[in-house]
Write a structure and sequence with these properties.
The chain has 13 helices and 15 strands. It has 319 residues and is of the alpha+beta class. The strands form 5 sheets. A 4-stranded mixed β-sheet has the order 12-13-14-15, with helices on both faces. Strands 1-2-3 form a 3-stranded antiparallel β-sheet. A 3-stranded antiparallel β-sheet has the order 4-6-5, sandwiched between helices. A hairpin with a 4-residue loop joins strand 2 and strand 3.
């Protein structure tokens, strides 16, 4: 059993007869709290957080001089025994931008787990009234966000998942894939549309609106139109659309080469039953002698040259 403490003025008396200064007890408690904060934050702490838990500015400076803490930026520190990871860099960028700063776009998407790799630059939003120098490694914007569009994830302020999806979708090369995947597992079209309306004047709003329209419609019809444009633009002839074979309507066929091209819209519109039916359909066409190519809306719009290359390769294959 540990002795029970009895607090007095300026000291703590334990029933075992030992006197321990209250300042020492407070310092011990502060150090424990500081360590807990840094453990939650990848080894990072801000000057304001440290001061709020009893660490004086002179004590902070001593930690820096001794090498216990390293300076990351404006009032942001890292424990010397912690690695300088991508998470640390993002925290430093957001924390260093001051109160109300928020990660957005690709940075928020990575923080939410919507993409595997962090962006090379940190994307940070600060309140509109604040002036802050632009760093080489930070994409900074000034915008006052609705409180519904800001959440705290692992002790870092980031844009909400719906707004993050909208903004990352127009910033990343494969952003439409990110939106499609998020609609399958993480959010709803209704939530995306609501966030879009609340933030109608933001950067990339028009592009996001177009993606929302495609997502709502499913993307298949537009994927067909994109395919037709690619075929005509590449000068490919001898094809026809909506051809029947084996009881199925095929999007595009090249009869002479026995090449069938199928296009898919956004995956979130396809349930397990539709996916199984499409697989069975493709097997039947292959067994009937068709060389089947499948392209998604995302591939058609983002990699048109690769689509044309694959079609040419299929048309020129040995038969």
């Amino acid at each position: 059993m540990y002795p029970s403490p009895v607090s007095g003025l300026g000291y703590t008396l334990f029933s075992g007869g030992n006197l321990i200064g209250s300042d020492c007890v407070e310092q011990g408690m502060s150090r424990r709290v500081i360590h807990e904060i840094m453990a939650r934050q990848d080894g990072v702490i801000t000057r304001d957080q440290a001061c709020a838990h009893g660490v004086s500015t002179s004590a902070i400076d001593r930690r820096v001089r001794s090498g216990e803490w390293r300076i990351l930026g404006n009032g942001v520190y890292l424990r010397a025994d912690r690695p300088h990871t991508a998470a640390v860099r993002l925290r430093a960028s957001v924390y260093g931008a001051g109160p109300g700063a928020t990660a957005w776009g690709p940075s928020a998407a990575w923080w939410h787990g919507l993409c595997e790799r962090p962006p090379a630059r940190a994307f940070v939003t600060i309140p509109h009234h604040r002036t802050l120098g632009r760093g080489r490694e930070v994409t900074l914007r000034r915008r006052d966000l609705d409180e519904r569009d800001v959440v705290t994830v692992r002790s870092l302020a980031v844009t909400s998942l719906p707004l993050t999806v909208l903004e990352a979708a127009v910033e990343l090369p494969d952003g439409s894939v990110l939106m499609d995947r998020a609609l399958q597992r993480r959010t709803s079209l209704t939530a995306l549309e609501a966030a879009h309306v609340r933030n109608s004047g933001r950067r990339g709003a028009r592009s996001a609106h177009r993606l929302l329209c495609v997502a709502r419609a499913g993307g298949h019809s537009e994927a067909e139109r994109v395919l037709y444009r690619l075929l005509r633009g590449a000068g490919l002839t001898g094809w026809r659309a909506h051809a029947m074979s084996c009881g199925f309507e095929i999007d595009v066929v090249f009869d002479d080469a026995r090449v069938a091209i199928e296009v898919d819209g956004w995956a979130w519109h396809r349930d397990a039953h539709r996916h199984r039916r499409d697989a069975e359909r493709q097997n039947i066409l292959v067994n009937a002698g068709w060389h089947v190519l499948r392209f998604t809306w995302h591939t058609l719009t983002q990699e048109p040259d690769e689509v044309v290359r694959q079609i040419r390769a299929a048309l020129n294959r040995p038969r």
